[in-house]
Amino acid sequence: MEKNERQTESARQAEYIRLVRQMADREKEQTGRSRTFHVTTFGCQMNARDSEKLRGILTEMGFQETEEEQADFVLYNTCTVRENANLKVYGRLGHLKTRKEQDPDLIIALCGCMMQEPDVVAKIKDQYGFVDLVFGTHNIFKLAELVYRRLTENQPVIDVWEKTDEIVEDLPNERKYFFKSGVNIMYGCNNFCSYCIVPYVRGRERSRKPEDIVREVESLVSGGVVEVMLLGQNVNSYGKTLEEPVSFAQLLRMLEDIDGLKRIRFMTPHPKDLSDELIETMAASKKICRHVHLPLQSGSSRILQKMNRHYTKEHYLALVRKIRASIPDVGITTDIIIGFPGETEEDFLETLDVVSKARFDSAYTFLYSKRTGTPAAEMADQIPDDIAKERFNRLLALLHSMAESTSGKLVGHVEDVLVEEKNSRDPALVTGRLSNNMTVHFPGSDSLIGTIVPVKLTQAKGFYYFGEQMEDTEL
Ligand code: 5AD
Ligand code: SF4
After folding, report:
1. Statement: residue 235 has pLDDT above 60
2. Helix, strand or coil for residue 439?
3. Which residue's alpha carbon is at the smallest distance from atom 13 of ligand 1?
4. pTM exceeds 0.70
C-alpha cells in the first residue's frame, strides 16, 4: 500500500467510527446508557498490543469498557500457538451461548491468530453459529467497518484475510498502562520453525518504517510513557526488507535519542542472528534494559536442526557467554519446548545441560503441542504424553533448584525500579520491575505508579525480590 492509500484507509475507518458512534449516541439518548464492551486477550504481547488498538476503536465508537465479561459486546482476541489456547476459547464460547440465548442483542466477536486457521472458522460456522463477528490478524484495523456491517446487516460478518502486505498506521488505541506501551516494529515471521504455527497465521515479515516508529514513540512519550517494548517475532531481522534497509541496532539508537523516554525493551530476538552490533548497542546504551529474552527451544543440536532453528547448542552457549561478558548485569530468560518429535533421553539431557550452563534468570517451559499444518506435526516419533510430562517435571525441578542458588545476585544493591502496580496480595506494597526484568515488591503508595525510583534489594525469593525505597540522593 502506498502512503496515500494508507491514509485513505485510516480515513475510511475513521468514517465508520463516526457512523457507529452516531448510532451509539442515538441509542444512548433512548436507553440512557452506553453500550458496554469487554476484550479478553489470549496469548502473547503482540495480541496484547492488538487488543489496545481494538479497545481504542471501540471506545471511539462510543462503547464503554467494563471490567467484567458481562458486557453488550464481547471480543476474544485469540491465540493458537498451542492447542490449549484453542480449547480455552471453545470452552468459553460454550458459556457465551447460554448468555446469547437469554440476550439476543449481545454481540460476540472473535479475532486473532486462531481465526486465521480455516478449520477453526469452519467449526465456528458449523457449531457456534451464534457468533456475530469473525476477523483475523491482518484486518484488525477494520473493526469499525465490521461492527457497522454487523449492526446494519443483521447477520454474522466473517472477514478473514489469508495474507496482507498492508500496515495501517494511526489507529486509535486505549492503553492498559499510562506509563508503558508495546510498539510493533514488525509483523509476521519468515522463520518457519517446524513446530510453529505463527508464520501461517501472522503471515510474512513486514517491517514498519523507522520514521513511523519514532513518531509513534515520540507521541507516546509526550503522553506520559516512559518505557516502550518493541515487538516483533524476530526483531533481529527488523528493517532488512525496507526500501532503505535499517538494522535493528540502528533503530534502537534512533529511539535512544528521544528525550523523556527512559527505558527501551524488545521482544523477541532469535539466537541465529543476534548481531555483535546489537550487543554493542545494548552495552553502550543508558536506556535499553539489561534483559535479553533468548528462546532456546532445545539444547540438542540434532533437535534444533529438526526444529529448523539454524543454530547449535555450542553457538547458543557461546552467544550467552558473549552477552554476559559485554553486559555484566544482564538478565537472560528463555523459552524451552519439551517433547518435540524424536526427542530422546540424550537430547533431553542436552537441554538440561544448557540450562545448567546458561544459568537463565527465568524460563518459560512448554510441552510440545502438535499444530496441524506445521512440518513437525507430520514427523514420525511423536513423544507419548507421559514421557514428555516426566521430562518436563525434571526440567522444572532443575530450574527451581537453580533459581534458589542463582537468584540473589543483586541483594544489597540499589537498583532503579519502574513501579507498575499496587501489589495484588498486600496493599501496603507496590510492585515494579528492574531493568533486567525481575519483579520487586516494596512498601510504597499508589502515587509511585509510573515513576522510576531507587530501591534497595533486601531479599531474593527465587524469581522476585523484596526491597526498600531509597531517597534519590542515596543513589
Ligand atoms: N508447542 C509448544 N510450544 C510452542 N511454542 C511455539 N510453538 C509451540 C508448539 N507447537 C513456544 C515456543 C515459542 C513460544 C512463544 O511458544 O517456545 O518461543
Ligand atoms: Fe514461531 Fe520460530 Fe517465528 Fe518464533 S521465530 S514465531 S518460534 S516460527
Report:
1. yes
2. strand
3. 335
4. yes
